[in-house]
Sequence to fold (215 residues):
Amino acid sequence: MKNITGHLLDPLQSVDDAVNMGLHLILHHLDKIGTYVRILFMYFSSALNTIIPRLLQTNLIQLFIPSSICQWITSFLTNRQQLVRMREFTSNRRTISTGAPQGCILSPLLFSLHTNDCTSKDPSVKLLKFVDDTTVISLIKDGDEVAYRQEVIELAVWYSHNNLELNTLKTVEMIVDFREKKICTPPTHHHGKHCNDSRVIDLKRLQTTEDSPDC
Fold:
């Protein structure tokens, strides 16, 4: 499948690739006057367990995966028998038709294929995905955050439709700012809850300051 879909997927092959690409985007943008960056580190609850085979098969077909492979993957993910064993205790068997098996070599690739159509429409907002890690990097100029906040709303709609649940307690937002005069900006909200640890990083003075709750 990698031979068929490799050129269509995100180019990131490791965590190091994701970090390096993110740093390049951020530092290149911050070289310009009047700019700062908002970074949203998104954490999904049990991401690999949320794959719906029917939705995955639709994505696979759109990526021109042969129908025989699509059917095999759907069969592999549906009606799986699962139980829990702890010492001498064993649970009853349950039939599972959602998610990909933990530890399976196929699972990370299937999740990447499942989320392949989750993309940013605005060039100032970059989406870095590596398996089940998603980072939103917004390259902001002159305080205009409209595109960033709209993309976050659209992302929320996308993962809601695709059975993904954002853990707002573990999702972290960070602001990286070179400017001498910083404007207090409100945190990003998701379903009425703001993301944790919204903070400003002043790279010139190498210090971190928490956003004021009055912002």
Remarks:
- The two ends are 48 Å apart (CA to CA).
- The longest strand covers residues 133-141.
- The CA atoms of residues 161 and 183 lie 35 Å apart.
